[in-house]
Amino acid sequence: MGGEGILPRMRHGSPARAWIEVNLEQLACNLEELRRRHPGLKMMPVVKANAYGHGLEAVARVWDSCGASFFGVANPGEARRLQQAGVHTRPFILGPAFPEEREEIVANGWSSIVSTFEEARHFSELAGLYGKTASLHLCVDTGMGRAGFLPAEWENMGKTLSRLPHLRIEGIVSHFPAADEDEEFTRAQIAEFERAVDCVREYFPLEYIHIAASAGLLGYAAPSCTMARPGLALYGFPPIDTDLNLKPALRLISRVTLIRELPAGHGVSYGRAFITNRPVRVATIGIGYADGWLRSLSCKNVMLSIGGVPCPMLGRVTMDQIMADVSNAPEAREGDEVELIGPRAPIGQIAEKAGTIVWEILTGLGPRLPRVYLEG
Ligand SMILES: *Cc1c(COP(=O)(O)O)cnc(C)c1O
């Protein structure tokens, strides 16, 4: 058990107490699988939030070499990191940009959504100053309520924007608020999106027409779309049932730091929310809520896998340490690896027990965890 050669070491040489293992090959396979199922559809892998916790640079390099149309990022800082990593795929900023961010976007030839005439005018002006053309995707709000031109503006949108001299509207974008929850609404939303596309088609070439994130891509056909923006599904966690062969690439691993036998009637962790009712063999493990192992998982009978044996976590999660009952794992030793997320500890169950969603678990995995990459 444990310690089989890939233990990440911190700079001073001692092994890390907890880390994330990412299989880069699997990430490439997941993109290929989506492509196989959707031939001809362009892809914008979404790599915001440190590539859903997997590590931005390493993940982007993999999908960069697979070929992608854009990388979806949350802000110019993430776009800059991609550029500094030598990634060729253009960053696409998924949300509104502040006025002071637009110059960098234009100067670097990045792309972004545009939601208002005022934004569009400013982008065009900046592009003129740089002797460039700002390439933007027209965002239309079909129900998300987060960004985009509202339906009342759709009639004029094309005409007004087409007059801006340094702007190239290369795409049109919208977003589903309920693709995994409300089929009727989502179908109506697709029809609305088609209407928006029709309103502006005569004005712009619209190479990129896109509305679907993971759930939309797996669950719906959107006939006029030429691109999709999968995040979660690409990381191998499809948010809705699918027969596609998408597999997780990430495992969250920690190590046992101490094993002791606690007598009956002994409290475990803060608040003494768990009290042993018999002698219990208790392992202390080197991960906590500071790493993103949520405190809301406390006392929820979360199962951790130690040497392949499921062991219940006991009591509350502390900042850097947790405890587990290893009475059923007599082989367990100090130094052993503990799988907290992985094939034997499915993330869906963890998210459910924490009262949250898989996206939040992944993106909450903290910077203290080294990312260890397996290749080939
Ligand atoms: C985050 C995001 C995505 C990716 O969503 P998933 O559900 O992870 O596939 C796609 N589009 C936009 C606009 C987003 O903000």
List keywords for this structure.
single chain; alpha/beta; six-stranded antiparallel beta barrel; 22% strand; binds pyridoxal-5'-phosphate
Describe, in plain words, how this protein is organized in 3D.
The protein is of the alpha/beta class and 376 residues long. It contains 11 helices and 18 strands. The chain has a 6-stranded antiparallel β-barrel with strand order 10-13-16-15-14-17. Helix 5 (99-108) crosses helix 6. The structure holds pyridoxal-5'-phosphate. Pyridoxal-5'-phosphate (PLP) is lined by residues 46, 48, 72, 94, 175, 213-214, 229-233, 239, 359.
- Biggest sheet, strands in spatial order? 10-13-16-15-14-17
Q: Sheet bearing the most strands, described?
A: 6 strands, antiparallel, barrel
The proportion of residues in beta strands is 15-25%
What distance lies between the first and last C-alpha atoms, to the nearest angstrom? Answer: 23 Å
Give the helix tally. Answer: 11
The helix-strand sequence is EHEHHEHEHEHEHEHEHEEEEEEEEEHHE
Q: Helical proportion?
A: 25-40%
Structural class: alpha/beta
Runs with pLDDT <50, length 5+? none
**How many beta-strand runs?**
18
Radius of gyration: 24 Å
Q: What is the molecular shape?
A: elongated
Bound ligands: pyridoxal-5'-phosphate
Which helices and strands, and how do they pair?
Blueprint: E1 18-23, H1 24-37, E2 42-43, H2 48-52, H3 56-66, E3 70-73, H4 76-84, E4 90-93, H5 99-108, E5 111-114, H6 117-130, E6 134-139, H7 154-162, E7 167-173, H8 183-200, E8 208-210, H9 214-219, E9 227-228, E10 250-262, E11 267-268, E12 274-275, E13 280-285, E14 303-306, E15 309-314, E16 322-325, E17 337-341, H10 347-354, H11 358-363, E18 371-374
Parallel strand pairs: 1-18, 2-9, 3-4, 4-5, 5-6, 6-7, 7-8
Antiparallel strand pairs: 1-10, 10-13, 10-17, 11-12, 13-16, 14-15, 14-17, 15-16
Helix pairs in contact: 1-3, 5-6
